[in-house]
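Deliverable D5.2: sample structural annotation.
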Amino acid sequence: MLTQGIFLTADEDLRQDLLTLYRSGLDSQGCAVQLGRNGPTISPGCELAHRHICAASLNVIRVRLQKRQKDLAESQKRIFIANFGCPAGPLDEVLRD
């Protein structure tokens, strides 16, 4: 839910909450948080973070469609595929529904 909220709102507090959650033991491999140019960030290269991002992507697209934001849904779909490596098939299916 935190990951979904980040993509829907760009709320920095939600991002910080997710970073804290990963650091507090959810990420047993220690790869979900990496140091970025502006401080700690979520690493989509980590299997756990990648799985969370791609699972959230489906709900993000659904919410955008429910709010009649099809252009934004399609734009975010492209970002989930290109930037996070999420599979296109499930996202395309949500867009068709």
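Annotation notes: The longest strand covers residues 33-36. The radius of gyration is 14 Å.
The annotation will be released with the project's public dataset once the embargo ends.
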